[in-house]
Structure formats: C-alpha cells, structure tokens
Design brief:
The termini are far apart. The protein has a three-stranded parallel sheet with strand order 1-2-3, covered by helices on one side. It is elongated, with a radius of gyration of 16 Å. Helix 2 runs parallel beside helix 3. Strand 1, helix 2 and strand 2 form a beta-alpha-beta unit. With 79 residues, it is of the alpha/beta class. The chain contains three helices and three strands; from the N terminus they run H-E-H-E-H-E.
C-alpha cells in the first residue's frame, strides 16, 4: 500500500504507537546532503524555509557554489 507521508501523518502514526501523545509536538530539522546542486538547491531551501523548517545542508566539496547559494536562502552549511 502506498501512503502519502506528510507532517500530520507522521505525527498521527507516532501518537497511535504511543511514542507521542496527540498534544505533543515534534521538532523537525531538514538535513540535505549536496554535491554540485546549485541549480535546484536554493529553490528547495527557500521552499522549506518558507514553511518554517530549519535547514542544514552538508556541502560535500561542491565546485558550483551550491553551499553559498543555500546559505543565502537561510540554510546552515556544513562542509
């Protein structure tokens, strides 16, 4: 069975398993490994930041400046 996952589904499933109560909230941080992704990474980071998620990008020695572009959009960069 294919299930579309989103924040509500994950939180609901954890509550059903007894890991979270329905009144508890989850803290989510997005971690993105990146290597030469300057074309798409800034768009992705921008969209995630608009939704309120903290974003960490692990720049694996890119030569296309993708880490700096992601930083300009608000991501924390690890090299």
């Amino acid at each position: 069975m294919l299930v579309k996952l989103n924040f509500y589904n994950i939180q609901h499933q954890l509550a059903m398993l007894g890991v979270l109560t329905k009144k508890q909230s989850m803290n989510i941080c997005i971690l993105i490994p990146a290597f030469n992704e300057a074309k798409y990474l800034p768009i992705l980071v921008d969209n995630l930041k608009r939704k309120g998620y903290p974003v960490l990008v692990v720049d694996d020695g890119s030569s296309d400046n993708c880490g700096n572009l992601a930083k300009e959009k608000g991501a924390i960069i690890l090299r």
